[in-house]
């Protein structure tokens, strides 16, 4: 892997425009479990019962009970070395944008400035009736489900199954994928559409696609030019150090 790591560092040091796409695995070291896999949230909660907009509308109190558990994990979470490494890469001028599928705000907490939250933000709430959006801290959760001043049920401003990707996030992410010369795909299973299409869009536009993930994904050996099978929190700081050395 050392040879591949050096090649990837050279690509990132020379890339005119680099975009990172991050998934749930990027926040596991921060104490937020991934959704899929043996220890994933979907092992405990059936996504059809808890993560679809239909389920939320049918029984918002039930879904909010699960959301409260997730919220406690998010509030306790702090950025890990993977988040800080990507923020450092941006500060060096070697990363133009982070497109994240995560809703935890940890990239921003680590110092990343240009972040597209593809699936929304768990730190905001939205009323299903009037559409009003507020930061999580502006609304005290009393009984479940919480309600807006208008009386409508409030939900986290995140994309549930059955809901569209926010238009602005979709446009920004797609344009970035089409225009980048390198895409760093970090800690994602690459199976959730439409985020999973972004590496393919980048590849078709001529970009080098580099994935960093613990396990092989549908990108491995197919779309990815380089597949570095490792923990992102351990590998990315090393990679950034190498890029810094080449950029000096």
Describe, in plain words, how this protein is organized in 3D.
By secondary structure, the chain is an alpha/beta fold. 39% of the residues lie in helices and 17% in strands. The protein folds into 2 domains: 1-32 and 78-119 and 164-248, 3-Layer(aba) Sandwich (Rossmann fold); 35-76 and 123-158, SIR2/SIRT2 'Small Domain', CATH 3.30.1600. The strands form 2 sheets. A 6-stranded parallel beta sheet has the order 3-2-1-7-8-9, sandwiched between helices. A 3-stranded antiparallel beta sheet has the order 5-4-6, covered by helices on one side. Helix 9 links the parallel strand 7 and strand 8 (208-213). Helix 1 crosses helix 10, helix 6 packs parallel to helix 10 and helix 8 (167-179) packs parallel to helix 9 (197-204). The longest helix is centred in the first third of the chain and has 17 residues, at 60-76. The protein is elongated, with a radius of gyration of 18 Å. The mean pLDDT is 93.
